[in-house]
Amino acid sequence: MAEAEPKGGCDVCMMNCTKEENLLGLKKYNYGYLCKPQLLPWCKKEGAPAPRFFGKDEKLPLLLSLVLGFQHCLAMLAGIATSGGYLISNDTCFDFQNDTQMCGRMPWLISTAWLTSGILTAIQVFRARIKGTPYYLGTGLISVMGTSFTFLPIARSMVLEAIAEAKPNSNGSPTSTSWAVCATDAVTGAPIYDEGCCHKIGFQWNCYGAGSVGYGRFLGTCLVASLVEVGVSFIPPKILKKLFPPVVTGAAIMLIGGGLIGAGIKYVGGGVFCAENTESKAPVHGFIGQPQLCFNDNGEVAMSFGSAEYVGLAFSVICMSVLLQIFGSPFLKSTFLLWALAFGCICATAGKEVTVGGTTTTLSFFRKDFLERGKAVTFLWAPPDGESLPTLGFSGTYFPLVLIGFLVSTLETIGDVEMTCIYSKVDEPADRASRIQGGLLADGFNSFLACLFGSPPNTTFSQNNGLISLTRCASRSAGFSCAFWLCVLGIFGKFGALFASIPICVVGGLVLQCFASVFISGMKVATMDFTRRNQFILMLALGIGLGVAMEEHIFDWPGPYSFYRKNLAYDYGFWPEKMVCDTPNGGWINSNGFDISRKNVFSAAYSTHSVAADGLCHGVGFFANGVNNGNCCSVYNKSAAAGRKTLLLILKTPYGIGAIIAFVLNLILPEDAPDADSDSPKVAAGETASA
What we know:
Layout: E1 2-4, H1 20-24, H2 31-35, H3 62-90, H4 100-104, H5 106-125, E2 128-130, E3 136-137, E4 145-147, H6 152-166, H7 176-179, E5 183-184, E6 191-192, E7 197-201, E8 204-208, H8 210-232, H9 237-243, H10 246-268, H11 272-277, H12 281-285, H13 308-327, H14 330-334, H15 336-348, E9 352-356, E10 359-363, H16 368-373, H17 399-423, H18 429-453, E11 458-460, H19 463-471, H20 476-491, H21 493-500, H22 504-526, H23 532-550, H24 565-571, E12 581-584, E13 588-589, E14 595-599, E15 608-611, E16 617-619, E17 633-636, H25 638-652, H26 654-668
Antiparallel strand pairs: 1-2, 2-3, 4-11, 5-6, 7-8, 9-10, 12-17, 13-14, 14-15, 15-16
Helix pairs in contact: 3-5, 3-6, 3-15, 3-19, 3-20, 5-18, 5-20, 5-21, 6-8, 8-17, 8-18, 10-17, 10-22, 10-23, 10-26, 13-15, 13-22, 15-22, 17-18, 17-19, 17-26, 23-26, 25-26
C-alpha cells in the first residue's frame, strides 16, 4: 500500500484556467527562445536570451506545459517504436520464418509501446511513498519511460527461435502431412491455422502464432527478472555506488550501443536478413553470383544488400539531422530524429521505377498493408486480429541473459536519475539518494507492468536531461504532459500503422543515430573517473565486448540459424552442437560410405547430405552443408543443449560478456593510491549519466 507524498506532484497540473496567463504564459516564458532558428555558427551575434528556470514543483501555464511535454514526447517517440515493436515483429515477416499473426500485429505493438510508456511515465513522475517505510515509488522528476534497447536482441532471438522450433524436423523424405501440419477446411481445402502450427507451400512458410509464443516467453521471462531490479532498489546507496561505479555503468552502456550499431548499419543497407544471408543464395537456390535480395523490409522494392537506393534513403535521414543541428531552433534540434525520419519518408515516396516488357511501373518503398490494417482506435490487450494475446511463458535458457539485461538497465537508471537530479537542481545528497531508490523501484515495477501490458521492459530515457537543460524547465507538469501525448499517440492506432509502414532502410538512418548516441552516452559516463585502474577495466571490457560485436564467429556462428547456417552451427565454433547430440540422424549409406541423414528437401537434384563417422554434418559436391536445413541430429541432450545455448548467448552478446568482465574487475582490482599530480577528472560520487 502506498500513500502519496504531499500532493504527490499532481498539484503542478492544477491551476486557475480562467486567467489568460495561466493558459498561454506569454509573459512567463520566452517562446521565442524555443522556436526561433539559431544563428549560423560563424555569426558572432548572440541568440535570444534563455528563459528563467522552472523548478520541479512549479506550476506551468497550460500551453507551455503541453508544448514542452510534446517536445519530450517527440524526442523519444521513434526510439520507443523501433525497440517496442517494429524491429521485433519485423523479423516474422519473411517467407522462410513467417508468422502472419505477429507480423500483422506490428502497428498494434508500436501503439502499445507508446501507450505503455505514457502510463509508466506518469507513475515515474508521480512520487508515492510506501506506507510505513522510508522508500518511494517514482523519482518525482521528469523521468520519461520508454522501451529499452537492451532487450531488443534478446526479444528478436526468442521470437525467431520459437518459429524454428515450430517447424517439423522430418527425417527421410518428407511427406505432405509432415510439412503441412495444420488442419484444412473440409469445403475449401484452405489451411486452418492454429497457434504455433506451421504450413509450407513451396519455399514459403507460415508458422501462424509461433513467433507470438516466443514473444510470450520473452515477456514472461522479463516479468520474473524485473523483480531483481525491484530488489536492487532497496540496497543502500553506498553499496550501490561500490557495486556500480561509473566505469561499470559506462562500459555496459557503451557495449549496448556498440553491439546495436552493427544491426543499425544492416538496416541502412536494406535489412538484417539480406545482410546476414547473402551467402545463402547460391547454396540454397543454386543461383551462383546472384545475391540474396532484401524482400519484405522495403515495401515492393527488393534489391541486393547495400544498393544505392537503400543507402541513399538512409543517408537522407542523417543529412537532415545535420541540417537541423546547423539551422534549427532549439525545439527542432531537440526533436531532430522525428523530423529527420519524416524527411526520409518524403524522399521514399518517390519510389523506384522498373521496366518489365516495355512497361514502366513505380514500386513503393512503403508497406501499404500495414496502413490498411491499422485501426483508428486501439488499446492494450486488444490486438487488431481479435485473437487472444500470447501466453506468458518462461525460458530458463535465456533467463541469465535477461537478468544481465536488467542489471544493465539498473546501471542506466542510476546514472540517468542522478543527472536528472543535477539538471533539476536537486542538490541535497539524501534527497538524491531517495530519488534514485524511487527511480529504480519504479523502473522494476514499471517493467513488470509493461510485460503484463504486452510491451518490452521500460527504462528511463536520458534524452530528458538534455531537454531540461535546453528548456530550463524541470517542472513535473511537463512530465505529466509528455505522458499524456504518448497515451494519445498510442490510442490512435493509425499513428502506429503509419510508423510500421516506413521502409527499413529509412528506419536504419534513424536507429543508427540512436544506437551511436547510446555509445556516446556510455563513453561520457565511463570516463568521468579516468584513473589508470579504470582505464584497464575499460580496456578489457571493451576489447572483448566490442571484439565479439565485430567478429561474431569467435564463439558461435553469427546471425539466425537459417539455411546452411544451421549446419555450420552443428560443426562449428567454441562449443559445436554436435557435442550435445545424442543421436545423429541416420538413413542409408551412399556410394561414398557416408550415413545419409536424408535427401535434400529443397533440391535433391544436386546433393545429398550425411553424418560421417566423425559426427560432422557433410555434403557432397559444391553444395556441401548448403541445404540439409540443419537436421544433422535427431535427438539432442536437452540439459547439455540448454547449457550450451545459455553460455554461448552470454559469450556472444557484447554487453553480456563485457558487463560481466567490468563488474568482476571492479570488485577484484585494488583502487589506485591518491596522486596529487593526477590530471584525471574526478566528479562527485554518483554524478553519472546514462543512455
